Hints:
Layout: E1 4-10, H1 21-31, E2 38-45, H2 49-63, E3 67-70
Parallel strand pairs: 1-2, 1-3
Amino acid sequence: MKKRILLTSFDIWLKDQQSNCSDDFLLEVTKLDLISDDLSFLRQLPVDVQLASTQVMKKINAIQPDYIVCCGMAARRT
Length: 78
């Protein structure tokens, strides 16, 4: 039985960023045809806890995923 998986990523938040690596990652995942589960994407969430939480909860209620994978990046980490 296929599992429903929600994958999320954030938008950029610093002026010098051209992209968010978590969103770049999800973009690459969308190109793969190797995963047999039902993937849903919520990409480029706003970097605002309240706004992002509202969008994610709305999506969760709509699709009722079995799993949620929240992707993110930290600018000061390597």
